[in-house]
Amino acid sequence: MSENKSGNQVALITGGGSGIGAAVARRLLDAGYRVAVTGRGEERLTAFAEELGRPGELLTIAGDTAVYDDVRSAVGATLRKFGRLDAVVANAGFATHDTVAEGDPAGWTDMVLTNVLGPALLIRASVDALKETRGRIVLVGSVAGFVHTPGNIYGATKWAVTGLAENTRRQVTEWGVGVTLIAPGRTETPFWDSYGSLPPGHLLTADQIADSVVWAMCRPAGVDVNTVVVRPVGQPV
After folding, report:
1. Three-class secondary structure of residue 205 per DSSP
2. Which of 10, 62, 87, 188 allows an S-S link to 203, with CB 3.0 to 4.6 Å?
3. Is-contact 184 143, C-beta < 8 A?
4. CB-based contact 85:12 (threshold 8 Å)
């Protein structure tokens, strides 16, 4: 996928109704892409589409990124609507903001399935279509997938995403498919809603992370940017 061919490109974004996913969708629509976004909340997706004026280049699909039938249905709906698939962005994810020694295990299963299984299911469901277009896979990880912090189960899920990105690249590169891991530092998004408050210090914006995602997606054909770590200035780890 190159910057000069964006007019007919199609991208599918999970967790695309808010935060980083919505910011990526806006950037791609502005660049001439046709975009499908998924999310669990149909109301949130509807509100996002209405905010943008319900453009014909946008498809919203309600579903759970951790359920394979939902993911396959999303890929199929995108192909039926737009006829091709050039990029997928595995963005859906959340944190329980607790620790392995003191946290509540009730929330861990859903977090692990969404953060780890979800990206793997998206890759599996979309890889055949991406082979045809020699497309790109973008996984939204986290700085927490590179830096150990005490008891951080969310961080462990993002370490898994870090590994999934490189393991996937080593398989799909022979088919001409690129893989990029975008690992944001502290970013002001709905991610922090369940935390109670935003963390102290300077934060990135969803739009700033979206810039990095779209930049990686739009490299010239044959160029595969694999890992992009983006921190706000002032975040030491």
Report:
1. strand
2. 188
3. yes
4. yes
The residues with which 179 forms a beta bridge, in sequence order, are 137
CA pair distance 217, 8, nearest whole angstrom:
14
Among the ranges given (42-56, 176-190, 208-222), the one the predictor scored with the smallest mean pLDDT: 176-190
Long-range interactions of 207-211: CB distance < 8 A, separation 24+: 207/23, 207/27, 209/20, 209/23, 209/140, 209/182, 209/184, 210/20, 210/23, 210/24, 210/26, 210/27, 211/27
Residue 237 lies in a domain: no
Q: Given this model, what pLDDT does residue 234 score?
A: 87
Of 33, 68, 154, 195, which is the active-site residue?
Answer: 154
154 in catalytic set: yes
Q: How many domains does the chain have?
A: 1
Using the CB atoms, write b or e for 88-103: b if 16+ within 10 Å.
bbbbbbbbbbbeeeeb
Residue pair 207/189 in contact by the 8 Å Cβ criterion = no
Q: Are 113 and 66 in contact (CB under 8 A)?
A: yes
Is 28 within the bounds of a domain?
yes
The pLDDT score that the predictor gives to residue 194 is 60
CATH, residue 126: 3.40.50.720
Q: How many CB atoms lie within 10 A of CB 151?
A: 13
Per the structure, the complete domain to which residue 225 belongs is given by 3-230
Does residue 164 register a pLDDT over 70?
yes
Query: Is 160 contained in some domain?
Result: yes
pLDDT digits (tens, 9 = 90+) for 53-69: 999 999 999 999 999 99
Model pTM greater than 0.85? yes
